[in-house]
Amino acid sequence: MPSLKDLRNRIASVKATQKITKAMQMVAAAKLRRAQSAAEAARPYAERMEVVLGNLASGITVGPETPRLLAGTGADQVHLLIVCTAERGLCGAFNSSIARLARDHANRLLAEGKTVKIICVGKKGYDILRRQFAQNIIELIDLRSVRQIGFDNAEQIAQKILGRFEAGEFDVATLFYSRFRSVIAQIPTAQQIIPAQLEATGVSSDAVYEYEPEEGEILATLLPRNLTVQIFRALLENAASEQGARMSAMDNATRNAGEMIKKQTQTYNRSRQAMITKELIEIISGAEAL
Amino acid sequence: MATFNFELVSPERVLFSGAVDAVVLPASEGDMTVLSGHAPMMTTLKTGFLVVTSTPGNGTRVLVRGGFADINQNGLTVLAERALPAEELTHEILDKEILQAEMAWDATNDPVARQAAESAIAQLREAKEALTY
Predict the structure, then answer these.
(1) How much is the pLDDT for A104?
(2) Are residues B44 and B68 in the same domain?
């Protein structure tokens, strides 16, 4: 049976924790709003890009002239997984669910006898994946010093990936991130980015388009840019998802702390009352004995 | 004068959206003006000023870097990797961009990339000159 002082201390510590989680929840809510509007502002660009590329790709038949970013290297042996996670923890299952998706994917590929290479964007995913795939991880990209993700960050990552692709280090690249659906729903997603998967929209087929310079040349300049845009979008979605996940995780934690405080206060009051009763009985029985 | 729909989109935000009279584009094969009823076409852009005219005799200048323009029956869409309205532009920003382009030039030995970086530097210098007026 803990003493009254122990109970008081415990209540005080849970209260302090509750204050922290509450503050974290509010910070996450404010950051979420910013991240969400950034993700929404980036959407038109990515959508336009997709439409234009779809139009271009639908007019091109895959041949030896097709850029390798679209047609692939012709092999399917070496896979690159780009795992985007958060830099910080305390955001529920956010990091672990992305890492789990990547791990399952990697295990499947390894079982098929393929070679797997991993680039981690964000420290948390690296921490999780390092345990199993220490020799597969080729790079860790740290974005901790970045407050608001800009296009430049995505560009740097894209340049690194493109450099490796040009050097023939891998055949297929897949991007792992969490898609932001709502504050309570974030969906871990795997998206193949090299070779690019474009949906032919076929909208413009009736209009006669003029291309300046040639169609193939435009496509060749657009494909690397599309890679950057896809990564940028993934990073923004990830940032919004992270804040959403943290917000709901901290909301839960605050609620749990509240329940715990309630329960412990009850125990505390009960034992205090028992103590008083006990003392009263002692006094009364002492008086009676006289 | 007939107007058409123009959208200027950068990865981070939509900079302009609305009806305009004319837009001068720094297309990669030479500057071009787009008026309403232009034939559908697509072109890549070089670094330079894009001039938007929404009322006669009045133009807004925007510096665009690396992008492309898509003209179709719905209007003109410019997707620019980097877009800075002339009002937000200062010599410092341009100097930074020039430095970046020069670093890109230093970083590569590929003649095509070098040429691209070279022309970007020249265009940025030109933009810096033009800004003074």
Answers:
(1) 93
(2) yes
Supply the DSSP symbol for B88: G
Range of the domain at B68: 4-86
Q: Which of A207, A221, A229 sits opposite B11 (nearest CB)?
A: A229
Whole-number Cα distances in Å, A157 to A42, A129, A141, B108, B122: 17, 19, 8, 17, 27
The pair of structure tokens assigned to B79 is 């997707």
Instruction: Specify the DSSP class assigned to residue B39.
Output: P
Minimal CA–CA distance to A211: which of A220, A201, A198? A220
For helices A215-289 and A4-58, angle between their N-to-C axes, nearest 10 degrees: 170
CATH superfamily of A29-249: ATP synthase, F1 complex, gamma subunit (3.40.1380.10)
The pairing of strands A210-212 and A186-194 is unpaired
* Token pair listed for B93: 């920003």
Q: Give tens-digit pLDDT for A174-202.
A: 999 999 888 888 999 998 888 887 765 55
Q: Which two tokens stand for residue A63?
A: 């041949």
DSSP A1: -
Give the tokens for residue A1. Answer: 């049976």
Nearest 10 degrees: Cα torsion A196, B101, A211, A225: 20
Q: Which residues of A touch B27 (CB under 8 A)?
A: 212
**How far is the C-alpha of A109 from the C-alpha of B109, rounded, in Å?**
36
Strand partners, A153: none
Residue A211: pLDDT over 90: no
Q: How far apart are CA B53 and CA B60, in angstroms?
A: 7
Phi, psi of A283, rounded to the nearest 5 degrees: -65, -45
Catalytic residue among A82, A91, A175, A194: A91
Residue A84 falls in the annotated catalytic set: no
- How high is the pLDDT of residue B60? 84
CA neighbours within 13 Å on the CB side: how many for A1? 9
- Which of B69, B86, B103 is the last residue before a domain boundary? B86
Say if residue B14 is in the same domain as residue B65.
yes
